Amino acid sequence: MTIDESTVRLHGELTIYQVSECYEELHMALLRSAAEQSAGKPSSLTIDTSELVLVDSAGLQLLVQLAQHARLADIAIHWQKPSAALSQMIDFYNASHWFKASAKVTA
Amino acid sequence: MSTMYDALQTFMAEARGLLEEMELGLLSLEQQPDDKEAINAVFRAAHTIKGSAGLFGLDDIVGFTHHVETLLDKIRDGEIQLDSELVGLFLKCRDHLENLLSAADQGRAADDDMQATAAALVEELCAALGTTAHANSAKSAAPATNSSARENTWLIKVQFGLDTYRNGMDPTSFVQYLQTLGQLRTSTHFALPKDAANFDPENCYIGLEMEFTGDCSAEELHAAFEFVREDCQLSIVSASDTQEDVHTKSTESAEPSKVTSADDSSQNSESRQAKTNSSNLIRVHADKLDALINLVGELVTTSAGVSLLAGRHHDAALIEATSDTARLVEDIRESAMRLRMVEIGETFNRFRRVVRDVAKELGKEISLKISGGDTELDKSVVEQIGDPLTHLIRNAIDHGIETPEVRRAAGKPECGTLKLHAYHESGGIIIEVADDGAGLNSEKIRAKAVQKGLISADASLSEMAIAQLIFEPGFSTSEKISNISGRGVGMDVVKRNIEALRGTITIDSEAGVGTTFRIRLPLTLAIIDGFLLGVGDANYVLPLELVQECVELPKQAPSETGRSYINLRGEVLPLLRVRDYFGIGGNSARRENVLVVRLGHRKIGLVVDELKGELQTVIKPLGPLFEQLKGVSGSTILGSGDVALMLDVGALLDDIAQFVDERI
To answer: Regarding predicted confidence, which is higher, A22 or B451?
Structure first.
């Protein structure tokens, strides 16, 4: 995972083995974004999942949790085009609404 | 990764057990095609194999088993009548499954041969179903059966337990498995905690609601969730029938709570019961048990030494303490030996298939009757008795039981009976293989023995001695050589194997009525309760279970040669003077004792100087130098450090019998 400015890039695997570490960093990024927003800056968090090669249920769950949390906290997330591995998982769980609706973004 | 490997190993072991169950069920179905319980057992076995194989992604097995299961289901519902042809087909399928499992175990995919076998079997299965064969894969198989008869729609709600990921499970695998069974529509509910601070990314919050359409019962669907049943909330409801067949809890709650047993239906609690039972078992490597038994053996010897020393010091408290220890050592010895005891039933059951196949091949009708399967004996004995028993059984079917025509002509029922019976008798175990066939043809055996040069043409032999000839190497009387038996190797090997286990084999045969082979085996091989006796300076031990009683040798008893007899309460008891038999010099003691020992139905009195009483005996084999010695079968070390020889009562009895034969 690489974070630069307001873009988080996830690559490689997002499975039960990585979710704990990933969770912390993603939430830090989300909190930063929230802080910027509350400071009046127009801000959004961009998440780029296009290089994820392996996602399991725990990985998908993490992203859904992030999306849900962001929605409740009214933080905008811009989801970039998901990788094939993630798309497959999203389809599997019919979870695509989480990855669209919150993209109310000024990209 | 290694847990996955372990899980696969567990699956393999379980699947093999299930295949055995399946075989047993099928064989009993052949006898009683209406046995509902047996059909269910076969079905369950197939179903569980399919379910578990699916979790491991063994698609060959899933696809193939699916066809087997479909046909079994129709039989279970009474739509198709089971006959012996179908049982034969299922048995072939079982064998194929075994091959598939072995292949999977070695990490191989099914090769072309196996796929051809599978295709042929699937075709037969489909023909029996009355449908046409479709491509041999699980995915195409499922819709094909949907169109047939019973199609159910189920609403499945499942909330996975928090630990699901940590236990190495992924909800996707269950969904994927269900997709192989039928059509599935899924919606997901992430029961995430409201407060983000409570979110643990390694917890599983996934809940699924599925609409499943396919040819499955609620039971089968429950079985699909077998691996997470302990830890999830599951409700399976028929869509057509709003009646719920399980108690459900709301899956809407934000924090999934662990399920209690109240959530399970009765059928679940049944399998849960079975699970608890199996969780009471520990799988232990046999080597560990052997090491324990060895140590216990040393302990027995050492503790005998301690008792001896204590006795010498005439310290009452010390003697008391050592006798307590000795008692405990004896208990430990017994418990340790019991660890190795297994029931012989499983070994017996294996023969059902042997009997069926061999009988079919030879065109004979034979029913196998098994009794005493719960008789326990040492694992190593059970393992080694399998081959000799197989041989005896094949022989009994091939040579013993006649063809239906011959039997009808002889006024016997066309279906021959083969009995396997096990029971305990004075510390040993007896295994009987009895047939109701023609019995041994002593004329033929005699002629053959003369022809083979085993006996001279004018030798006079008792019936029993003639029967014993069949154990001679290179002996076979079958006119035609079949691939079942009759190659002339066998009976001598059988006898050798049994003797290697310190056992004996005897034959009872009556012309036209049948033959019974009686195998007598010691319960254990390593440590026994012995009886110590002294002759001059020498010590001898024999198994306590053979000792019937001890009497004083009457003064007036005749004692011309080594062998004689006494009158034991009106019964003639042959005597064997151990002093003379083993050539121990010196004068006999002033008062001699007779130890009455019994082996099978033969009795003999051993004349000895001194009776030294019971003794726990760790049997050590004799070295190669002394192996051929007649009358002794082993040795043991006494507490004093002296060596005592173990008497081979069987050999002594044979010796006496031969002597009597010669006299007559």
So the answer is: A22
